């Protein structure tokens, strides 16, 4: 989907940012990411060594406890928050349900065989390692760029919570690399694996259909089917009704509590913060999602912009269309910044560099505030991140409009 000349031109745009200033900024940001990661891992090893402490009160506790229950032959017990709490030892009144298909539970079983802290360490190393591998093809051979995208500050919320979205993002970027190289079967395999966490991937089929990538669609569908059937054989067909029941209740719960979810970002939460009633804001959010989907379809059909612009547009559409967008899912913003640079949307001008820095930082300030509590988190969550995403989308649309004619893929 991208010829050699276009790829070399995109690589040249990335290398144009190189210099001592970039090295200094990257080292500072990477140090922040490493320190946050080290702090949470060290805390996990220290506290769980104490009698009576099985886990930390972070998201990873649900994954770890679900893996243990599956190992014990009780996979359906993962949908019972009281049973999860018996395993991880955190207040069962905290709303932290298990909301994943059986394939992801199967993957977590090896982590369930480990104590909490070593399991969290493995999760962290796998997440960072996969991001490093996935970003390498797009880093133009520039070490500071690769390092910046392997340990971006935008990943801090994910790493301190033990969330899984870096693994998902790495799989998605790997699919983009396969598409760029014309390896459409491999791209389908990668995309099919993303159904293990399907929430952010709902617009991927829109892009694939628009581009007429039917082989990729077929392989992705077959991969998703295999990843659904094989774990069902292991856990039993009763898993799916329990999964559906868990999903049916989460939407109403989140809408009722949306004003208090200070770690949520995105247009829906911003509209609620501005005073709209949650049902009204949700209606507008679905309208925005439809509009973004239409834009995405036209973008991926267009011959006026290249592959990198289309990749950035797909990721922007994913984030802006999601009704429930948590701050750790803003990790994708760092990748968006890279692809906007590769596409020529962001260059060396001061406004472009400021926007690029904001994308690279993602939700790191919100994560720092969640730990240190120096201000109202809403002021640096949806209020900051949503305008950054909209500004990036505006820049992409202007780039698209200014394209003179048919462009190389």
Structural commentary:
The chain is mainly α. It has one domain. Helices cover 68% and strands 1% of the residues. The protein has 20 helices and 2 strands. It has a two-stranded antiparallel ribbon. α9 packs antiparallel against α10 and α10 (184-193) runs parallel beside α12 (214-235). The longest helix is centred in the N-terminal third of the chain and has 28 residues, at 20-47. The model has no long low-confidence stretch (mean pLDDT 92).
Please write the string of helix (H) and strand (E) elements: HHHHHHHHHHHHHEHHHEHHHH
How much strand?
under 5%
Task: Name the overall outline.
Answer: globular
Please identify the oligomeric state: single chain
Q: What is the number of independent domains? A: 1
In what order do the strands lie side by side in the largest sheet? 1-2
Any idea what the radius of gyration is?
21 Å
Tag the structure with descriptive keywords.
409 residues, mainly alpha, two-stranded antiparallel sheet, 20 helices, 1% strand
Question: Quick recap of the structure?
Answer:
With 409 residues, the chain is an all-alpha fold. It has 20 helices and 2 strands. Helices cover 68% and strands 1% of the residues.
């Amino acid at each position: 989907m991208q010829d050699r000349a276009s790829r070399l031109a995109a690589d040249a745009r990335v290398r144009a940012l190189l210099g001592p200033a970039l090295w200094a900024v990257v080292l500072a940001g990477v140090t922040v990411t490493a320190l946050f990661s080290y702090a949470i891992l060290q805390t996990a090893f220290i506290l769980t060594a104490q009698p009576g402490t099985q886990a930390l009160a972070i998201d990873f506790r649900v994954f770890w406890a679900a893996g243990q229950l599956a190992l014990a032959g009780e996979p359906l017990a993962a949908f019972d928050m009281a049973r999860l709490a018996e395993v991880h030892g955190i207040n069962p009144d905290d709303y932290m349900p298990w909301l994943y298909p059986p394939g992801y539970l199967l993957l977590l079983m090896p982590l369930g065989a480990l104590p909490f802290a070593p399991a969290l360490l493995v999760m962290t190393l796998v997440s960072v390692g996969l991001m490093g591998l996935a970003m390498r093809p797009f880093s133009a051979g520039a070490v500071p760029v690769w390092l910046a995208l392997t340990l971006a500050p935008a990943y801090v919320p994910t790493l301190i919570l033990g969330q899984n979205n870096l693994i998902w993002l790495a799989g998605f970027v790997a699919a983009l690399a396969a598409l760029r190289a014309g390896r459409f079967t491999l791209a389908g395999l990668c995309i099919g694996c993303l159904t293990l966490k399907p929430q952010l991937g709902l617009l991927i089929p829109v892009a694939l259909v628009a581009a007429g990538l039917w082989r990729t669609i077929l392989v992705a569908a077959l991969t998703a089917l295999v990843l659904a059937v094989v774990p069902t054989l292991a856990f039993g067909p009763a898993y799916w009704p329990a999964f559906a029941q868990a999903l049916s209740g989460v939407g109403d719960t989140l809408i009722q509590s949306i004003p208090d979810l200070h770690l949520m970002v995105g247009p829906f939460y911003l509209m609620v913060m501005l005073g709209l009633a949650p049902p009204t804001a949700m209606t507008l959010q679905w309208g925005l999602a439809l509009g973004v989907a239409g834009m995405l379809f036209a973008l991926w059909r267009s011959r006026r912009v290249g592959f990198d612009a289309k990749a950035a547009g797909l990721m922007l559409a994913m984030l802006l269309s999601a009704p429930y967008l948590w701050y750790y899912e803003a990790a994708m913003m760092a990748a968006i910044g890279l692809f906007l640079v590769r596409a020529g949307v962001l260059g060396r001008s001061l406004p472009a560099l400021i926007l690029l820095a904001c994308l690279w930082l993602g939700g790191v300030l919100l994560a720092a505030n969640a730990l240190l509590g120096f201000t109202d988190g809403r002021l640096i969550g949806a209020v900051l991140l949503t305008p950054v995403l909209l500004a990036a989308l505006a820049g992409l649309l202007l780039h698209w409009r200014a394209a003179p004619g048919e462009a190389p893929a």
